[in-house]
Sequence to fold (489 residues):
Amino acid sequence: MNSSRAAAVLNVVGGERLPGRATFEKVNPADGSLVALVHDAGPDVVDLAVSAARTALDGPWGAMPVNERAQVLRRIADKIDERADELAAAETADTGKPAALVRDLDVARAAQNFRAFADVIASAGQDSFLTDLAGGRKALNYAVRKPLGVVGVIVPWNLPILLLTWKLAPALGCGNTVVVKPSEETPSSATLLADILADAGVPDGVYNVVHGFGPGSAGEYLTTHPGIDGITFTGESSTGSAIMRAAADRVRPVSFELGGKNAAIVFADCDLEKTVDGLTRSIFLNTGQVCLCTERVYVERPIFDQVVTRLADRARQLRLGHPDGPETTTGPLISEQHRKKVLSYFDLAVSEGATVVTGGGVPTVDPGLDGGFWIEPTLWTGLGNSARVVREEVFGPVAALIPFDTEEEAIRLANDTEYGLAASVWTTDLARGHRMAQRMDVGMAWVNTWYLRDLRSPFGGAGLSGIGREGGHHSLQFYSELTNVCVQL
Ligand code: NAD
Ligand code: 6OD
Fold:
């Protein structure tokens, strides 16, 4: 596409589309073609966005009865369904992912997020206590839920609309207004969502979007802005540290969903066929670019060779290709910069003594796709827990397979990490499944499955993987303030 004809992605401020101080190019990771010119918000645009959100906070949105707000969230979900093709096309162009994955996971979950949090807010109760006092008197304590205020929402590129709406739905449900900073890699769906929200009856200024990068750009301008009352962030652990420092300045609350180095533990008594299916999905979904993806697989020694062989076969069967290809299972990495990082881990693994079972390089792809950021699904053996590639998050289609002999050893190896996001256990002995899952130092432990979600359950991580939990009523705790009223009766 000629850059003079590329679509423009503008900032959304108080219902208006505002240009930025400059534009930057967004390319399609599948083929390197230009998708859009994105308007980079300078500090003035971020300031206007925060002011618009502050003004809207005092308008009808915050004052709306909860049941009416829940109805608006349900209307948003319906409108996402109506415009699913348009949203999916934007998301596919920004990410290069298989179109079927975008439709079935990202866009479907965007609608589900709004429906789930409509139900959560409509049914939420508050604490109330009848307090006994001396002399038989009583007092009534009850808590009133209020919005947190203007919330800064900063999200990454891997599941753009899924992760944005996972935070946006409860934030709006609690009556907040927001300024969203999508990833510079995936600006389109958040911008399109502004039309959908307006159409569903969300007043101007409640949802604002600023585009740009992190340090010295829109991300930093937003997190350091004094008009922001709280920050919800999904992204890398190191970015979380920087944002936490910015938030500390005015003691603002943060909710962080960060990186992972997730383990799977595979016992010899597992259902091998189902386990290999589950592991394949957990290592390679979205080209390994899901924070929950498995990058360490601990396998009980008697079935180690079998698991390695079967998983390698499955990795070789993945079909890298055009997002619309009917056979395509796997897309590219998000950017050339990210591919360089993943390739540097491929080199490091070899220098640390890995045997490359499959993959390990850049694949040959269809001629029209050779400008894209493709990478081979990769498996390593021969590494121990001290290798850097077994300790650091790669965020690509890759896993190290390591044998173990006892339950104790498996738990010790799995928990030997600074991260604490997710884990899975594969066994037909359910007592063992429960026992192992409960001993994992992670936010989410799956048994005989992976990334199976109930949006009412707590989601988040420990250690370097995050702060706090979102999901169901856990989200309400972050996105609202409580005032306790005590009345002496
Ligand atoms: P990233 O941290 O580089 O960027 C995320 C967002 O933060 C982007 O919008 C970026 O522009 C912004 N940003 C970067 N530096 C900033 C700064 N100093 N101040 C303010 N904003 C800043 O992450 P990414 O590369 O986009 O995403 C991949 C990472 O996200 C992986 O580590 C992955 O594990 C993690 N992730 C975690 C979860 C989870 O639920 N735990 C979910 C998805 C992704
Ligand atoms: O499914 C979700 O709600 C969620 N927050 C997923 C995060 C995936 C990380 O990449």
User: Anything to note?
Assistant: Residues 158-159, 163, 166, 257, 290-292, 453, 459 surround 6OD (ligand 2) (CB under 6 Å). The chain is about 40% helix and 20% strand. The CA atoms of residues 197 and 478 lie 22 Å apart.
